[in-house]
Amino acid sequence: MGSSAQFDDEEPISEINIVPFVDIILVVLIIFMVTTPFILKPSIPIKLPKGASGDKTAPSKFQISLQTNGEVKLNGKVVTLEQLKSLAVVFLKENPTGQALLSADKKVPHGEVVTVMDTIKSSGIQRIGISIDSI
Questions:
Q1: Mind listing the pLDDT tens digit for each residue in 44-68?
Q2: What's this model's pTM, rounded to 2 decimal places?
Q3: Domains of the chain, start order
Q4: Residues with Cβ < 8 Å from 105, sequence gap 6 or more?
């Protein structure tokens, strides 16, 4: 009986201890800081032409890049124009309003850029964004 009287005298805990919460948040923050560099997508170095009137576009899952050595890459993988056209048709079936994003090095001849754009358009993709470096 004596021990039950001891519990009756204690007041209920009415404060929230936030120290464990702060500890958990700091651990989560450290985890995000460590893993963020691994999440970033690798990019292909291209010297884009500069332009002042460019608008921001939505990210695209169909990113084409033209290299100075004549290679055409789709999402980082080298493809031929025929492969690009067939992959564009597949992309269009999955994303009817999808947009292609074209990045070409500033040293790539204009004719090659037009050829790739024509290949994309002939596959049915009507929206093509062109990457630039803003001034």
A1: 555 655 665 555 655 667 888 888 8
A2: 0.55
A3: 2-39 (no CATH), 50-134 (3.30.420.270)
A4: 46, 47, 48, 66, 67, 68
